[in-house]
Amino acid sequence: MAREAHDERPRGTMTEKEYRMAERERPELDDTDRRILEELSADARQSVTALAAKVHISRAHAYERIRRLHEQGVVLRYTAVIDPARAGLEASAYVTVRLKQNTWPSLCVKLRKIPQVQHIALVGGTFDVMLLVRARGTAELRDVIFDRIQPMPEVVDTQTFLIFEDVDVRG
Fold this sequence. Notes:
single chain; 37% helix
């Protein structure tokens, strides 16, 4: 499933053949793997010793399983959860996008270059893509949507849903 270095498709976009191959290559996860993933999702900064104690395995076993989860592509990276308002991102919106047929790969590459676009999802339904856009204020949010996203040749139309309050259900 390795791609050539010159492949312009964004990471996360696969051909139908690659999807079928990935289905066969999907790693088997047992209950211990799932508990490790839950612990890492809750607090990736905890020590492996603390994680191992919570999952009831040895530290060495925890290191080995985490290493394997990385190698298998189950764990992609570790990141911080930021409070957008406290970080100065006071305007947020979900933006839905309908796109021209067969333009998803090129659109995704372009959207990834816009720092205010924090999440991109290819979805099914009445629109094709859902974006989470966060900006310092409504003027910046407007500029991102009207001046950067809507003019893209792949975009047929957009609809914007302002976010008035965020609730992080993960704790």
